[in-house]
Specification:
Distance between the termini: 57 Å
Shape: globular
Structural class: mainly beta
Number of domains: 1
CATH class: Mainly Beta
CATH architecture: Sandwich
CATH topology: Jelly Rolls
Order of helices and strands: HHEEEEEEEEEEEEEE
Largest sheet: 8 strands, antiparallel
Number of helices: 2
Length: about 240
């Protein structure tokens, strides 16, 4: 009897209003991508599979441009964050460069990882893979490293912070505390290297508000891709 009364009351309410709420459609892939990974830009394609993101270069030529005040050719995602933060991602897979591919730097290389960008400064931390070119031939051995690149108002610097294990995913993390950008890496997402700052004595001039995200770049005339997972931004501890 109570159930019948409830049904009658519901029908009466619908009849009184004349309106039945339409079901909310699920988010589109573009909306979901923006929610999980941020806005996208650069010359490339972005494809979601669950929460994993694959970034593909589509221009068939070097896409390393990544400077402030310019439209980047390297495909990337972007989030605006303020104050201290910690951003983490797992590089599940990234194309190695074609060993004999034409390139514009003297080395065939690809880079997939994280970046932090301010008004006049950029810090990039990535899985770098390269064939160094020597006179007459390309190096036969693929070099894999955790590459560091920095540009700031009075200069720039670069280097590496270790060698990732072959055949395994690479987890990388950037942490901002005050004016410092600290980096660390992990082979399993649980045990992390000690956070370090190779540019500790350099004022990189990052403002309070910066842009962060993932990127994929290469120096070669080829098509390539990288797949990322586990992207997360939290307040720095």
């Amino acid at each position: 009897m109570l159930r019948a009364a409830a049904i009658v009351a519901f029908v009466a309410a619908v009849a009184a209003t004349g309106v039945v709420a339409a079901p909310v459609p699920p988010p589109s892939e573009k909306e979901l991508l923006a929610k999980l990974w941020g806005q996208t830009e650069g010359q490339g394609e972005f494809e979601l599979a669950g929460k994993q993101l694959t970034v593909r270069s589509t221009i068939g030529r070097p896409n390393r441009d990544f400077a402030w005040g310019q439209r980047p050719s390297a495909p990337r995602t972007k989030h605006v964050v303020r104050g201290d933060f910690e951003v983490t991602v797992c590089v599940l897979d990234a194309s190695a460069p074609n060993k004999d591919a034409k390139n514009d730097t003297g080395a065939a290389e690809t880079n997939a990882g994280l970046y932090v960008q301010g008004e006049a400064s950029i810090f990039r931390y990535s899985l770098g893979q390269s064939y160094q070119r020597f006179p007459g031939a390309a190096n036969q051995n693929l070099q894999r490293m955790l590459r560091i690149e920095a540009s700031y108002p009075r200069g720039g610097a670069g280097g590496s912070s270790g060698v990732p294990e072959n055949g395994k995913s690479t987890y990388i993390r950037l942490t901002r505390k005050d004016k410092e950008i600290l980096m660390s890496h992990s082979a399993d997402g649980n045990k992390w290297s000690t956070p370090s700052n190779p540019f500790k004595n350099i004022d990189m001039g990052f403002p309070n508000e910066v842009t962060v995200g993932v990127f994929f770049s290469h120096s070669t005339h080829q098509f390539a891709h990288a797949t990322f997972d586990g992207f997360m931004i939290v307040k720095a501890k």
